[in-house]
Amino acid sequence: MLEITELVHSYGSHRVLDGVSLSVAEGELVSVVGPSGCGKSTLLRSIAGLIRPSGGQILLGGRPVDQIPDNLAIVFQDYSRSLFPWMTAANNVALPLRRRGLDRRRRREAAMAALDQVGLADAGGKYPWEMSGGMQQRVSIARALAYRPSLLLMDEPFGSVDAQTREDLEDLVLRVCAHHGMTILLITHDIDESVYVGDRVIVLTRSPARVSADLKVDLGASRDQIATRQLDEFVRLRAEVGRLVRGGSTTATTVLEQH
Amino acid sequence: MNHVRVLRGVVGAAGFAVAVEAVGLSGLVDERFLPRMSTILVGAAGLIVDPEFLADVVATLTAWALGLLLTVAVAVPAGLTLGALPAAERAVRPLIEFLRPIPSVAIIPLAILLFSDNLHLKLAVIVYASSWPVLINAIYGLRDVDPLAKETLRGFGFGPMSVLARVALPSAAPFIATGVRVASGIAIILTVSAELLAGGSEGIGIFITEAAGGNRIDLMLAATLWAGLFGVLSNAVLVAVERRLFRWHHARSEAAR
Ligand SMILES: Nc1ncnc2c1ncn2[C@@H]1O[C@H](COP(=O)(O)OP(=O)(O)OP(=O)(O)O)[C@@H](O)[C@H]1O
Ligand SMILES: [Mg+2]
């Protein structure tokens, strides 16, 4: 569904993406991990058609991305700036549904259902600036989920919520992905999370970013916060991703590089 | 906190009034040139029931309201257009930078030559002078819309017109409203100035000119007091409207403080 070849991007003379190639199949959930500032958000913005990369190719459903693709939803890393402060949470979630041709009542129902899913059933009437960071982040997740896009791009979507809520949201995304057949690209810097939610984990190198590994996650379709994290395969993958993010190679156990 | 501020203002104004009264009582200044505060206040109170003065007030306020309305009708669309089209904004920028610092009162003599109708003259002067803050705030308000807010809507597949209507306009609205409030103050100044310089048959400015002709400094100052009070009142009303309409904007900037 998504095919990226040799993607290159520079801000001025500052090279950020240095030939990133990856592909995502229909219905797949791919996590992308990489050190801070390596170019993850830049990659996501290129896929979304919000910036025009300096070089390389992005194919979405076989067609090059030269403008903003249809049927796309984005959860921005800077979630608070992406909510509209003059609207209540429910209206923020309902607004994109205008593109779906739903009438006012149906939009409202869908918005309330999505807010309920992220645990904000009672906060629909609140304004973003009346909410905590974690609540705002959940509103922006609800907005993307309610839209039911075929491709969902999420940029560190669970950064501001507590551990328990984070686990609930991870499971929610897994459920929604399976149920509605969404394709999801999820950026995170949490190594455990990348393995837990991903069908595959793509590890990026330090800036300028290249793909340093593309790992298949063999944990089955249904995952459980406790049981899955105890599986040998999970522990192995987590260690491997951890090494890769720190800059080691796939096989070497480079303990010293942790310092 | 707000109450404390109001109270401080009232104390300040009362203190000033008492000082003027004391100067009058002391006999240091000839009362014909600086009437005692009590005389001015009694005069101001008397004006409320003076039908001639009331007709003048109506004339001035009509010109003010029409002028402000026209200002909004002209400057808001112009500012939004220039804010949305940076190339156009750069093209007219030098012109704006040149015209804006010219004291608006200075164009009244020109307007006197150009307009035979007294109301048209006033309106032209008001619109010219009051448009600047609305225009500038609309341009900057639109230009400073958070790009991420626009990208959010674009990401969901909304076109440029939808983004303008649903993100850019609501974001810029509080700034435009502030521009209109500043414009309302300028408009009252220009209305009275035009009446003073251009003459005419009715208006607070005309009343002041006539009082001066009759050597009634107390009435001049009483009428001026009413004009000033109106300015304060309209500003307060517009501030209240802004706070109500753009609660999200003020709540956010207060939280940021
Ligand atoms: N609009 C921009 N103009 C110039 N440089 C930019 C811009 N956006 C990002 N950069 C630079 O590009 C590099 C990669 O930024 P990017 O936001 O893609 O990284 P990231 O992997 O998402 O980081 P983080 O994990 O902190 O979110 C950084 O060095 C950043 O300073
Ligand atoms: Mg980022």
UniProtKB/TrEMBL annotation, chain A:
Kindly give the InterPro entries that the UniProt entry links to this protein: AAA+_ATPase (IPR003593), ABC_transporter-like_ATP-bd (IPR003439), ABC_transporter-like_CS (IPR017871), ABC_transporter_ATP-bind (IPR050166), P-loop_NTPase (IPR027417)
- List the Gene Ontology MF annotations in alphabetical order: ATP binding; ATP hydrolysis activity
**Signal peptide, first to last residue:** none
Protein keywords = ATP-binding, Nucleotide-binding, Transport
Identify the residues that the record assigns to the ABC transporter domain, covering every copy: 2-231
Q: Which domain of life is it from?
A: Bacteria
Locate the transmembrane regions by residue number. none
Q: Which SUPFAM superfamilies match?
A: P-loop containing nucleoside triphosphate hydrolases (SSF52540)
The record's SMART domains line, in alphabetical order, gives:
AAA (SM00382)
Note the PANTHER family from the entry.
Answer: ALIPHATIC SULFONATES IMPORT ATP-BINDING PROTEIN SSUB, TAURINE IMPORT ATP-BINDING PROTEIN-RELATED
Q: What is this protein called?
A: ABC transporter
Q: List the source organism.
A: Sphaerimonospora thailandensis
Q: What is the lineage of its organism?
A: Bacteria, Bacillati, Actinomycetota, Actinomycetes, Streptosporangiales
Q: Which gene encodes it?
A: ssuB
Automatic annotation (TrEMBL), chain B:
The chain's coiled-coil residues are none
Q: Is Transmembrane tagged as a keyword?
A: yes
Arranged from A to Z, the UniProt key words for this protein are: Cell membrane, Membrane, Transmembrane, Transmembrane helix, Transport
PROSITE patterns named in the record: ABC_TM1
Q: Give one Pfam family, short name only.
A: BPD_transp_1
Ranges for domain ABC transmembrane type-1 come to 57-238
Residue intervals passing through the bilayer: 6-26, 61-86, 98-115, 121-142, 219-241
Compartment list: Cell membrane
Protein name as catalogued: Nitrate ABC transporter permease
Name the species this protein comes from: Sphaerimonospora thailandensis
